[in-house]
Amino acid sequence: MRYSYIYFSFVFILHIISVFFPSETFSYMLGILAFTMLMLSFGSASRLFKILGISFVIVGAIFFATTDLALLDIPPMLEANLSILTLLAVLPWMNSVVTAGRFDKLIQNLLRGNVQNLGALYQRSTTAMMSLTAFLNVSSATIAQDVLVENLKPIHKKVADKFIMMTTMRGYSLALPWSPLEVLLALSIFITGVKYAELLPWMIMITVFMFILDNVWGRLYFGKIDYPKDNQTIKEKQNSEIRPKIIQLIIALGSFLALVILLGNWFHLEFIFIVTILVLPFAACWAFAIRRSKSFWTIGWNKWKYSMNNMHNFIVLFVTLAFFTGSLNDSPALNLIQRPIILVADYPIVLLIMIQVLFMLMSMFGVHPVATMGVIGGISTMLIDILNPLSLAIILVTAGVSTVPIGTYGLVVTITSMSLRQSPYLITYYNLIYSLIFGTVGILVAYFVLG
């Protein structure tokens, strides 16, 4: 599968072209190409995603048998989620400019700062994690954990592990509700059709509230534990190097958010498509501005090629999910699924709680929140009639993000578990209250938006 990236790139480029020149022929052809991608990827996908894929195909086939659709109607279904896959394909370029500009070193320096106790380090750690996760995603967790494991060696291992499990997982989750590069946010906008500019203020408000609440708790809980003075190594020279990096990061993030919003308002294109076509040129211009173009293209090419050759899990998930959703929408079974929703239609708060609980239960059994969101997307039309698009978007994002620190088999939890050699269930346990509060805040805000 060394050259999978060539074929995948071809399909994604055709998808981008089809947005500008839509046609039934294009849709049919892309569906066939998506099916070929699925066949190429299935053997290399992980066991969990194979199970999810097979489940979606089997259930989708049962739904399909109850419809009036013909087999020739299947290919157009399969291209429904290519926009999400195309977005995932370009994200490594943004990661690469951060690496080329050595912004990943910023988190290392910030975590070696002059603080007196673990309470102050807790705030610094969550801030650093949140800042860089917006660009680096999972990589930020591995960088932060490596630094913290080394710095906290003088601390009792149980305390140090608990600190790392909490601060890195929570800091990571705080970047996801508002980052335009986050798939959960992109997918919620894709399902509900709300504008990013309309959703962003609510996501920032929730993030700020959770950041303040969690950091107050962190200062109180860990504040009595002294931070080893041997690790307070940042000098004035290092501080003078950190400040420009922080300013550059803030300017880059602000510029990218502004461009996404402006282009969305000017050209009335879908949010996912805007982010997709913006990532590479923006990253290249950023690299040029900081005089790191050569290393950007070198790092970027290798990261992008590796990422493209290892997209099997997401290809299996999103192509089979497209078949499942397409079959469900035309099946009489949709009416059966809608009945419980009709029963609580007069009590939207109950529906919001049901959505949150569904996300949490599914995540604990290893189901990715993206898959759960895709399933809910199959009945989104009815949900929107009860909740309204903005309210549904808010609960989808917060419910999905709140499961990240407690998803026992999730990627970040797995990485943390391996790094600390601790049970993933312990990570879930330490972050369960945080996730419940995060989800509750999302429910309350979504309910408030209903008016």
Automatic annotation (TrEMBL):
- Is Nuclease there in the keyword field? no
Give the highest taxon in the source lineage: Bacteria
- Could you tell me the keywords of this UniProt record? Membrane, Transmembrane, Transmembrane helix
State the coiled-coil residue ranges. Answer: none
> Has UniProt tagged this entry with the keyword Thylakoid?
no
What residue ranges are annotated as transmembrane? 5-21, 27-45, 52-72, 84-103, 172-193, 199-217, 246-265, 271-290, 311-328, 340-359, 366-384, 390-415, 427-450
**What is the recorded name of this protein?**
Citrate transporter-like domain-containing protein
Report the source organism: Gracilibacillus dipsosauri
